[in-house]
Design a protein that fits this description.
four-stranded antiparallel β-sheet, globular, 12 helices, 25% strand, single chain, eight-stranded mixed β-sheet, alpha/beta, 12 strands
Amino acid sequence: MVLLDVRELDVCIVRGHGVLPAVQGVSLSVEEDETLGIVGESGCGKSLTALAIMGLLEGSAVRITGGSIHFQGQDLLALPPGERRRIMGNRMAMIFQEPMTSLNPVYRVGDQIKEAILQHRSLSRKQVHQHALDLMERVHIPDPSRRINSFPHQLSGGQRQRVMIAMALACDPKLLIADEPTTALDVTVQRDVLDLMCRLQNQTGMSIILISHDLGVIAETCNRIAVMYRGRIVEQASTSTLFSNMSHPYTLGLLGSIPSIDRDVEWLDAIPGRMPTLEEAVPGCPFHPRCFAAKAECRTKDPGAAVLAPTHSLRCHYPQGSLS
């Protein structure tokens, strides 16, 4: 059963008298008890897409200008602000990048965990306090009765990330959006955090959207993968399909940049050039200035989304691999 359905989502940044398209025509869906990975370079629109889904763009210079977002059959964009706030943090929650900047430095972590519970649950103060302790124990924070009174700077990076997860799980959401949850953590702590999220998913049956620039992390944890470039999903497939039949040159470039334990290399492969800024007009395919397979058509004609198989779609004039 489809839990979240996003169709043709457009997000623009308002600057002066004009607008800059930041997310264009993004369509994705998440089923119950499924993990969808969204991968791409920094600045490709992953976090903006997540913030649009969560309804956290109000009051900013960023606007949703097109498309639809349905969650559990409800059109979120048509809901009054009060109704939507009752969903956010309750049935839908988000773990933000870098917990040291996401947590309030002047409030104890226990009070920050309790905030969502107080907003969405009718419990006594004593019950809220016990629920916060239970959540901290659930995410394996050591000595929760002491740590509940700690300030963020008194915790390690891994413990702060666990506090963020506890906050997100406070009301047992059906959908958890994890935006770069392992950023700035060492590899051992990264593994612990990802394993914790997978265990909690198995226990609660929640769905997860995992956002990352690391294709390796996404491959290990997700059922399906959406690859984004400059505000668009350029390839989307089940994890097994994507890695057995990777077709977009950008996806191939991301995979080629991952170091291999099977061979010694002095230099890692890299995608040439850089992603164009929003102010730069790029005719045709947005990836063509960096693409090894670009031809004349790519420089003038924007490829539409094509369905290659029931579980595989992409935007490219000249797919690579066995589909070329």
